[in-house]
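Weekly modeling sync, notes
Attendees: S.R. (lead), two postdocs, one rotation student

Agenda item 3: backlog of single-chain predictions. S.R. asked that every request posted to the team notebook include the full sequence so nobody has to chase files. The rotation student volunteered to paste the first one in as an example of the format we agreed on. Action items at the bottom.

Example entry:
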Amino acid sequence: METIAIISDIHANHVALETVLSDLDRIRPTQVVCLGDVAATGPGPGEVIRKLLSRDWKFVRGNCDDAILRYAAGVTPPPGDEHFEIDQWCSTQLSSRELAFVASFEPVVSFTVDDVSLCCYHGSPKSNLDELLPTLPDDEVDRCLRGHSAMIYAGGHTHVQMVRRFREAYVINPGSVGLPFAFDRDSSEFKPLWAEYALVHIDQKELAVQLRRIPVSAGAIHAAANESKMPHKSWWTSAWR
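Predicted structure, as returned to the notebook:
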């Protein structure tokens, strides 16, 4: 049996990444694909990149990876937005080698394992800003995936785990390692204390998709932010519960 681990949206949260890496080192998947947004919007951009540099993984470029590269090139974010200002700070924490590593990420990564084809992207194969949600109408899913053929389509960006049947294929989202989204009954958003990713098990042509949630420590999350020089620490940590 072959096992493909799919992770996404680490968002400079090295505490959550370390939790997932420990799980992956125990499971020992055949391959790992990272769907992007690795070093933005969190307290440990350099720590995350240095951990990823040591891994022989496939990497997709997300919209926040693009943002990091723009800010590193001198683009100024809109004033007064905590998210963008943290991203700009993250860009200043990366060396030229680390930025070159992010720039090497590909828009789409396609490969085949035991005759099972996978197409991996961030938002969709057409744009890393597309949102392939469970409620997206089939004709819109078709628009996003047109021109690509796979048995497993895997993307991130929405920070919401999903397995969706689409014709003969599956469209999956592993959720977010470093910034998972959850919602109260009143629809208010918060960040739950877990790290998300997915495993795809392939046994000849039999498939199984496993969505995983690994608990993370609130104390470690808050300590990582407080020990960094990240701006807007209180805003960032207040969402976690």
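Discussion: group reviewed the output briefly. Helices lie at 14-27, 45-53, 63-72, 82-92, 96-103, 138-145, 218-227, 233-237.
Action items: rotation student to repeat for the remaining queue; S.R. to check formatting next week.
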